Structure formats: structure tokens, C-alpha cells
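pls design
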């Protein structure tokens, strides 16, 4: 059989499977054998194979994105670095240039970099999946971006700008003590170790869904490329690759939104199907802490959660500190907040498209999507698969989101380890060459060490919830330390340290028990209903029945 015949056959299988005239009847009127044996002899494995339209053009688009990232990193690591070295011979310029770009970065690229790194691959896929599974409750957290941005504008950013620090935890050392500085920096490093493998797993999962290549095959590739351009390019390479990657993210989402809406028959059809499926919902008005999305958890908890990211988070503040003035920082904050809100709204819209597309044939229940986080890649293959290059564009977007977040965090780890752990403990001055070697070694070490932890993440369920849960253990105490330092000058080091340790222990106990309860099935959040009545391919009915019990 020729390649053309094979491609034609796959397209016919996919079109038959997603026919608008299903042959199965309702779950309540027939037995399980009838449901799982539709008229068309198409099974999940055949359909999954037929949808993998990742061809030469898609690979070209994907590889082109990676090459651009590598080229940008190489430029700032070799060409621009030589210019900077020739123009500036001052002591300490190596660390200053590598970590904060000499404090001469421009507003637009830094704002785009913040958007790209803030919306990781976890958020890009996880937000849409969240809307599909639980409805629009999570979308209301976007309101907290405005609240947290205002607080950052007036409270935190002026402090960091006036001090001109590279590591935010240097402030803790100045405000409280060296011991508190180490404690806070250790919390950040711990958070990074937890988060890095989660961020790596998401793009690898997407690539596996569309290409058939295993997660653990692509993971080392992601790490190698990201580590390379972060290591050689420093913050300048990170910011400019982030800016390019943010454009890729916006472009891919817009294309998916337009084509997905067109295939459904318009916005009204999409909206009605989501309304009928109960997806257009609001946070519950309750004080019950076991409710997944309540008004208190979304607006109060969400505000503090976003405030940590926009006000004291090392990667965020490090980009702000790469700008030349407080006025430039505030301009960047405004553009960043607006751009981030738009990007999140696009993710919400994609989630609504996903449910409207699969409103009568849930691919998670049938096994067409092996995990919830494979849902959106599946949607991309169905909606954009007939256009060469567009699936590659979306995969590039997911990788862009992940790479931007990972590279930023790796660069920030270099700043924190150097400024908070190494320099204070070295009595003699460190040469420029030694500083350069140390910073790049830190990036490589953290990048490579996260590969093995991907195996752990793979077994722990829905990545958006996992990411938020694990980081919440540390976000609260970290925000508390900074808020106390800035707003409560009468509080001393012992009180803050005791409160922070208590908070970490308490949050660890709550989050670990919540995850254990989720894994063992002793506590489950109620999912919104799904249907398989419109499925026109064979699937394991037992899988569907088990999914309804979760």
C-alpha cells in the first residue's frame, strides 16, 4: 500500500469515527455489549493511529521553533556577550549581564517573556482540560490577576526596584537575618525541584499524543535544548526566546479557536452545548473547605496564589529587575497582566470548544485519550490534522510554554544559588570566570536532575491540580515572609521563622492527605457528567463505567 493510500485510509477512518450520525443508542436502553459494538468496525487503537497526522511539515515547524531558540541563545551567549565584554570592563559584569541583562532590557520583550513563562505547558493544556472536566468555575480566577497586579504595583515592586537586588531573598537577609534568607531561598529551590518535572512532562505528553513517540524518549530532548540556550544565553537569551515563544502560543490558540468554532457551526452552538452540559458554572457560595471551587477559594485563595507569582516570585522579579527604572517596570506589569488575561481567556475558550466537540462522545471515558491531559492534543489532531503544519504549530506552542517557564526557572535558580548560598559563604572574591562556570553548572545540574522525576509525575494524575497543590505548600509561607517584612516592621525574625515552619508543616499535612485520599478513592470531587451516546467506534464499556464512579 502506498503512503498516499494509507493517508487516505486513515482520513476515512477518522471521518467515520467522528460522524455526526452515531449508530449507538443511549446507555440506559441497551446492555453493555450493544454499546461497545457499533455498526462501524472501528476500535480505539485504529482511531488513535489514524489521528496521528504529524507529518513532515509538522516536524519541520516544530524543529524550526527549537532551532530558533538555540540560535537566539547562541547569539546572546557568544556574539552579544563579546560586545558587552568589550564595552563594559567593570567588576561583577558577568553575573549582572547573565542574570539581569545589565539592567538594560526593553519593556515589550520582557512583558512577552513574563506572559510566556507565566503560562507554562501545564497551564496551556491544564486550563482547557479543567474547563472541560469541571466547567468555567476556574475561569473566575482571572479576576484575581487584576487584584494581585494592583497590590504588586503599590506594595512590592517599588521595594525591589529601589534595592536593585538580583535575588529577592537578599531582601529577606537585609530585613530579618541570614538564617531567614537561607530558609526562604531553600523554599524556592524546593519548589523548583517539585515543579520542573511537572513542566517537562506536559509537552512530552503532547508530543507523544500527536506523534506516537514515547514520553521518556522526548523528555531528554526537551531538557537538552532548554538547558543549552539557558546556559549559553543567560537572561537575554531567555527573554528573547520567551518573546518569540509567546507569539507562537497566541498564534496557535487563535487558529484552534477559529477552526474549532467553525467546525461546530458557530459560537451559539458551542455555547448551547456547554450550557446543556453544565459547563457554564460559577464558584459555589459556601464556606465548606472540601468544595473544590468555592467563592472563597477562587477569589481569596486565588488572589494570594497569583500575588505570589506576580510580586515575590524570583523568576518574575528577576525579569522586572532587568529593566532600567520603576516606570519601565510598571509599564511592563500592565502589558504583562493584560496579555496574560487574554491568553488565559483563549485557554478557557479552547476548553469550551473541546466539550462542545466531544459533548456526546467523551474520549477520556472511551480511552481515545489515555489521560485527561491528552484531551487537548487530541482536539488539535481532529480539528487541525487535515492542515499540514498546524498540529506542529500547536505542539510548538505547548513546548514554547514549557520551555519558556523551564528556562526562566533554571536561570533564576542560578541567581538564587549564587547570590544566596555561594557568595555569602566565600570569603575571598570570586573571579569572573569562576562566576560564569558556577552559574552555568547550576543550570545544567538542575536541568538534568529533573529528568528522573518525570516518572513520579506520570503516576500522580491531573497535572494542573498536582502543580497547584504541591506549590501551595510553599507559596503561602513564602508570601507570608515577604508580606510581613514589607508591611509589618515590628515583627522580628523568630516570629516569622516559627510561623513559616508551622505553615509549611500544616500545608504539607493537608496536601499530602488530600493526594492520598484522591489516589485511594476515599475522597473524590464530583465531575460534571459526560456522554458516550454519540460514539461511533468500539471501546471498552468497562472503562466508561469505571470513569463514572471516580
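designed seq:
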Amino acid at each position: 500500500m502506498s503512503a498516499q493510500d494509507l493517508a487516505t485510509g486513515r482520513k476515512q477512518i477518522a471521518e467515520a469515527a467522528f460522524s455526526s450520525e452515531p449508530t449507538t443508542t443511549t446507555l440506559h436502553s441497551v446492555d453493555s455489549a450493544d454499546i461497545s459494538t457499533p455498526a462501524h468496525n472501528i476500535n480505539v487503537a485504529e482511531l488513535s493511529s489514524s489521528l496521528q497526522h504529524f507529518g513532515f511539515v509538522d516536524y519541520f515547524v516544530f524543529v524550526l521553533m527549537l532551532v530558533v531558540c538555540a540560535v537566539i541563545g547562541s547569539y546572546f551567549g557568544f556574539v552579544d556577550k563579546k560586545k558587552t565584554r568589550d564595552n563594559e570592563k567593570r567588576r561583577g559584569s558577568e553575573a549582572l549581564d547573565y542574570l539581569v541583562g545589565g539592567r538594560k532590557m526593553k519593556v515589550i520583550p520582557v512583558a512577552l517573556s513574563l506572559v510566556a513563562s507565566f503560562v507554562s505547558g501545564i497551564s496551556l493544556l491544564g486550563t482547557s482540560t479543567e474547563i472541560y472536566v469541571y466547567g468555567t468555575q476556574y475561569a473566575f480566577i482571572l479576576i484575581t490577576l487584576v487584584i494581585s497586579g494592583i497590590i504588586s504595583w503599590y506594595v512590592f515592586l517599588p521595594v525591589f526596584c529601589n534595592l536593585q537586588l538580583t535575588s529577592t531573598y537578599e531582601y529577606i537577609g537585609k530585613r530579618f537575618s541570614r538564617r531567614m534568607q537561607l530558609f526562604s531561598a531553600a523554599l524556592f529551590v524546593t519548589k523548583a525541584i517539585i515543579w520542573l518535572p511537572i513542566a517537562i512532562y506536559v509537552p512530552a505528553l503532547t508530543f507523544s499524543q500527536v506523534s506516537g513517540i514515547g514520553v521518556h524518549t522526548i523528555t531528554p530532548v526537551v531538557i537538552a535544548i532548554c538547558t543549552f540556550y539557558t546556559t549559553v544565553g543567560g537572561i537575554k537569551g531567555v527573554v528573547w526566546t520567551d518573546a518569540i515563544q509567546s507569539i507562537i502560543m497566541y498564534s496557535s490558540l487563535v487558529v484552534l479557536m477559529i477552526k474549532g468554532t467553525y467546525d461546530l457551526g458557530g459560537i451559539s452552538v458551542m455555547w448551547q452545548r456547554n450550557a446543556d452540559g453544565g459547563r457554564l458554572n460559577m464558584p459555589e457560595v459556601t464556606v465548606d473547605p472540601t468544595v473544590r471551587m468555592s467563592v472563597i477559594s477562587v477569589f481569596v485563595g486565588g488572589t494570594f496564589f497569583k500575588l505570589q507569582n506576580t510580586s515575590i516570585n524570583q523568576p518574575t522579579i528577576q525579569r522586572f529587575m532587568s529593566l532600567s527604572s520603576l516606570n519601565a517596570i510598571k509599564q511592563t506589569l500592565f502589558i504583562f497582566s493584560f496579555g496574560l488575561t487574554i491568553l488565559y481567556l483563549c485557554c478557557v475558550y479552547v476548553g469550551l470548544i473541546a466539550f462542545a466537540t466531544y459533548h456526546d462522545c467523551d474520549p477520556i471515558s472511551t480511552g481515545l485519550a489515555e489521560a485527561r491531559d491528552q484531551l487537548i492534543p487530541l482536539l488539535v489532531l481532529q480539528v487541525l490534522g487535515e492542515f499540514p503544519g498546524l498540529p506542529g504549530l500547536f505542539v510548538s506552542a505547548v513546548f514554547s510554554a514549557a520551555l519558556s517557564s523551564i528556562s526562566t526557572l533554571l536561570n533564576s535558580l542560578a541567581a538564587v544559588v549564587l547570590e544566596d548560598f555561594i557568595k555569602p559563604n566565600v570569603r575571598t572574591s570570586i573571579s569572573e570566570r569562576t562566576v560564569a562556570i558556577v552559574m552555568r553548572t547550576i543550570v545544567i545540574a538542575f536541568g538534568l536532575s529533573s529528568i528522573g522525576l518525570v516518572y513520579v509525575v506520570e503516576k500522580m494524575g491531573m497535572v494542573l491540580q498536582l502543580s497547584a497543590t504541591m506549590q501551595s505548600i510553599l507559596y503561602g509561607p513564602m508570601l507570608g515572609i515577604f508580606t510581613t517584612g514589607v508591611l509589618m516592621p515590628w515583627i522580628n525574625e523568630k516570629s516569622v521563622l516559627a510561623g513559616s515552619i508551622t505553615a509549611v508543616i500544616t500545608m504539607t499535612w493537608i496536601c499530602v492527605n488530600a493526594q492520598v485520599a484522591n489516589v485511594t478513592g476515599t475522597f473524590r470531587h464530583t465531575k460534571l457528567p459526560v456522554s458516550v451516546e454519540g460514539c461511533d467506534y468500539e471501546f471498552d464499556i468497562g472503562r466508561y463505567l469505571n470513569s463514572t464512579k471516580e
